[in-house]
Amino acid sequence: MSNPTSIVRTLADLARLAGVSPGTVSRALAGKSIVNDATRQRIEALATQHNFQPNQMARRLRTQQTGVIGIALPLGHERRQHISDPFFLTLFGHLADALTERNYDVMLSRIIPDAEDWLSRVVRSGMVDGVLLIGQSDQFDVIEAVARDYRPLVVWGSHIPGQHHCAIGVDNFTGGRLLGERLIGHGATRIAFMGEIRTLEIAERYRGLCAAAGAAGIATPIQLNTHMASDVMGAEITANLDHVAGAIDAIACASDVIARQTVRILADRGLSVPGDLRVTGFDNLPFTEQMVPSLTTISQDLVTGSAAMIDALFARMDGVDAPSVEMTPRLIVRDSA
After folding, report:
1. Paired strand residues for 156
2. DSSP string, 222-281
3. For the domain 11-63, what is the CATH code?
4. What is the fold, at CATH topology level, of the domain defined by 68-171+302-329?
């Protein structure tokens, strides 16, 4: 009978107590069918009794798997933006929940691309089994190059014809067009777009807005550079509003966060939304329904999108080249427009 006070630190210690070889203990704890049920149950009971935790590092070395998925936020276009951005936090939360349910750990990185090989360094680090990128930033070509040789890579972003990397995201062009049609349908003829268009996703939103304006025969929307970084966003919105004062009757914002700040600054100036100016966002983040006025926006369905990213990643980890997924945007009509 085993001594309940015995100290069990290694597989060899547990093997001596069980009267079997260390290899049998290793296979039993890994659930290998080669070990009969009675022996496996006895070893598992001993492991529980002695609070034995297998050496995860050694196991990972044997299997050539880390049990870790990297989630990276490339910020080549927006170097001051932080992980605390509501969009990042919302999408990251869905991804992290799904990964932990699959018994994977998460390694989160906020990356300011400092060289062309930044993504190569991540995927070749030996620290992760796969990589999820939140956004393409202005790094489309870098992502394309790595994806040609590295299969378990999935990106939240846009898909264009001929694209090699797997991207999951909404049809941003159609989303921008829907917002334009909504504003124009309520009489807007002089629309501003509040957003910086160096990234594919935001550029597509602006292009869709312009398409709606063109179809309606009104002027091309004025594009006003507005960064996502919270420390400069307010000042930029203020300057933009000064620049177009009296020349616009609606504002389509590149994101819900920009729209929230825009509505606040307009209120500070004594302007009402939607009375004086109609304002729309993009993303449908949780706070948009609680805003006053509540925000008309585009739903990207981050729940469905994050699940699609996880499914595509694990398919690719299993050797299946899961394709990109372009989700249909949905116009969420609320009080602001």
Report:
1. 134, 168
2. EEE---S-HHHHHHHHHHHHHHTTTT-SEEEESSHHHHHHHHHHHHHTT--TTTT-EEE-
3. 1.10.260.40
4. Rossmann fold (3.40.50)
Classify domain 172-299 at the CATH topology level. Answer: Rossmann fold (3.40.50)
Token match 């990964």: residue? 99
Going residue by residue through the chain, which has 337 residues, state the pLDDT in tens, using 9 for 90 and above.
Answer: 444 456 777 778 888 888 898 888 877 877 767 888 889 889 888 888 888 766 654 555 454 567 889 998 887 666 666 777 888 889 999 999 999 998 899 988 888 887 788 898 888 888 889 999 998 888 899 999 999 999 999 999 999 888 999 999 999 999 999 999 999 999 999 999 999 998 899 999 999 999 999 999 999 999 999 988 888 999 999 999 999 999 999 999 999 999 999 999 999 999 999 999 999 999 999 999 999 999 999 999 999 999 999 999 999 999 999 999 999 999 999 999 9
Strand partners, 331: 298
| DSSP code, position 70 | E
Show the beta-strand stretches assigned E in the chain.
68-74, 105-111, 130-134, 153-156, 166-170, 191-194, 222-224, 250-253, 278-280, 297-299, 325-327, 330-332
Q: Residues of CATH 3.40.50.2300 domain(s) within the chain?
A: 68-171+302-329, 172-299
